Amino acid sequence: MQYRRLGASGLQLSALSFGAWVTFGNQVGRGEARELLAAAWDHGINFFDNAETYANGEAERVMGDALADLRLPRDSWCVSSKVYFGAVDRPAPTQRGLSRKHVHDACHEALRRLRVDYLDLFFCHRPDPDTPIAETVWAMDTLVRQGKVLYWGTSEWPAQAIREAHKVARAHHLVAPTMEQPQYNLLHRERVELEYAPLYSELGLGTTIWSPLASGLLTGKYNKGVPVDSRLAQGSYAWLRDALLSDPEAKRVERAQRFTKVAEELGVAPAPLAIAWCLHNPHVSTVMLGATKVAQLLQNLEALDLAERFDDATWSRLEAATS
Ligand SMILES: NC(=O)c1ccc[n+]([C@@H]2O[C@H](COP(=O)([O-])OP(=O)(O)OC[C@H]3O[C@@H](n4cnc5c(N)ncnc54)[C@H](OP(=O)(O)O)[C@@H]3O)[C@@H](O)[C@H]2O)c1
C-alpha cells in the first residue's frame, strides 16, 4: 500500500480506501462486511468511509460492530461519517441539513453507531442552501475543539462555497475544511480537474474521491445489460440505474465499452485499470473503493501496481477512449 497526505494536512491515508455506500446494511450482510474490512485492513487500507444516510445509519452500525470485533488498534485506522441527508426516510426539518443542531446531533449519533470516541473525518455531504456557511463552520470548529472530530470537509460543494468556508474560518480563527469528497472517474472528471484546480495550491485541499468505477460501469459488467446480482439491479437504486444508463447524451455505456476494449488490448482487467487512472492524479489523496465481494476488492487492489506500470501515453489513450 502507498500512503498519501490528506491535502496540506499531516494525516496519511492509504491511497486506496474502502466505503460502505449501497453495500453495508443492504447488499452485504454482517459476516461479509467483516470479511471485506478484514481483507482491506490486511492489505494496508487504513481509511473506512461512511455516512449517516447510508442504509439510514445501519451501514455505520455494521461497520462499527465489525471494526470493534476485529480489535484493530484505534490509532492505526481512520473512519469517517457525513452529515446532511439525515438517517431516517422522511427527516423532520431538524433531522437534516447543516444547521448547528443537525451537525451536532449527526456527529453524536455517528459516534454511537460506529462505536468510536471521535471521527477522524467528518464531511458536509452536500451544500445546504438553508444554512449560512458561517454557522456550519462554527459548528464543525466546535466539534474539532471538543475532540469529537479531527478533520472536517465537504462533499460536492461548489469551489466558491469551499472558498467561503475558508474565508469565515480565517476571519474568526476557526478550523477550516481540510478535504472535499467529489465523484471522480473516467466518465466524470470536470469538478476535480477544472473547478477545483486552483484550490489544491490555494487552500491545500485534499480529496477523498468516490465511485472510481462509476458504480461498476467501468468494470464492463453493464456493457451488455444489467446483471441480476449487480448494484444497478437493486430495486431501491432504480434512480441510480436511470441516472447512469438512461441519459442518451452521456453515452456512458458506449464509453465504458470503448474503455474495456482498451483494457483488453493492454491485457489487464478493466476495474483495476480504471482505479489506477484515478491514482495517477496527484491531487487525489485517496481513491475510495466499494465492493460486494472480497474477490472484487482484491482485484481492485491491483490498481496500485498498474498505476506504476503505465505511462502518460496510456492514460491519454484511456481518456480519449472515454471522452
Ligand atoms: N460523498 C458522496 O456523495 C459519495 C457518493 C457515492 C459514494 N461515496 C463513497 O465512495 C465509496 C466508493 O463508491 P462506489 O461504491 O460507488 O465505488 P465504485 O468503485 O464506483 O463502485 C463499487 C461497486 O462496483 C462493483 N464492483 C467493484 N469492484 C468490482 C470488480 N472488480 N468487478 C466487478 N464489479 C465490481 C460492486 O457492485 P456490485 O457487485 O453490486 O455490482 C461495488 O459495490 C462508497 O462506498 C462511499 O463510501 C460517496
Automatic annotation (TrEMBL):
Keywords per UniProt: NADP, Oxidoreductase
Keyword Transcription part of the UniProt annotation: no
Domain NADP-dependent oxidoreductase: 16-321
Name assigned to this protein: Aldo/keto reductase
Matches recorded under InterPro entries: K_chnl_volt-dep_bsu_KCNAB-rel, NAD(P)_OxRdtase_dom_sf, NADP_OxRdtase_dom
UniProt cross-references to Pfam families, sorted A to Z: Aldo_ket_red (PF00248)
Family the UniProt entry places it in: Belongs to the shaker potassium channel beta subunit family.
SUPFAM superfamilies: NAD(P)-linked oxidoreductase (SSF51430)
